[in-house]
TrEMBL record:
Belongs to the short-chain dehydrogenases/reductases (SDR) family. PANTHER family: 3-OXOACYL-(ACYL-CARRIER-PROTEIN) REDUCTASE, NADPH-DEPENDENT REDUCTASE BACG. This is SDR family oxidoreductase. It comes from Rhizobium glycinendophyticum. Pfam families: adh_short_C2.
Amino acid sequence: MDLGISGKRALVLAASRGLGLGIAKALAAEGVHVLICGRSEEKLKDNVEAIRAAGGKADYEVADLADGHFVEQMIHAVHDILGGIDILVNNTGGPTPGTAEEMDGDTLDMFFQTMVVRVITLTNAFLPLMKTQGFGRILTVASSGVFEPIPNLALSNTLRGALVGWNKTLSSEVASYGVTANMLLPGRIHTDRIDELDGANAKRQGKSLDEVRAASVKSIPAQRLGTVEEFAAAGAFLCSAQASYITGTMLRVDGGAAKSN
């Protein structure tokens, strides 16, 4: 299927690895000029070279969501490198694991700034252009924890949940302008992040990594972890021309793991 977005311009946040990089590659394969950002210039440079070698168009900007000037920096980068924007992929990675009782004010505020405030502020900065041109795709990567809280990920469950109300509200405000706003929720997708979380859970439970991994896979009806490519394909579709009547939704990519409807 031709997704109808060849020639469009996309900014993908936190795309030096994992889910963000996967979505960037999927969009580039559809002819989208992607601008990826992250903290590691070495990884970003390698990723851009790989996308270009596969026939895609890509550039990078070294940037840190924790930097107070992040939003301003990305606005300038989009203007200077892309010359505008059609697709914004809000991906922030995940906060440190821990229980609800372990959350403290300083940590909560720090991650609230990087995972919520900067996502909303950056999106608002690009909305006027998207509305004027009559086309825009806002895709926010969150977590299946917004449906069913994930044990020992209290910060993630809390902060990503805040984005749910924002996304739904925004989607109704901009739909008449040809701008969609959707959320993509990964379940157990095999990334470095999942390896890190499984390692933390193994340590907390006093089990081996293999034991923790086997237990998690057993709970998934598909009986396996998802791949980044599967997840990214769903993201690319939500950014497509064909998905113009899909907005305000949350799409789970979890192999059927969620128990709720």
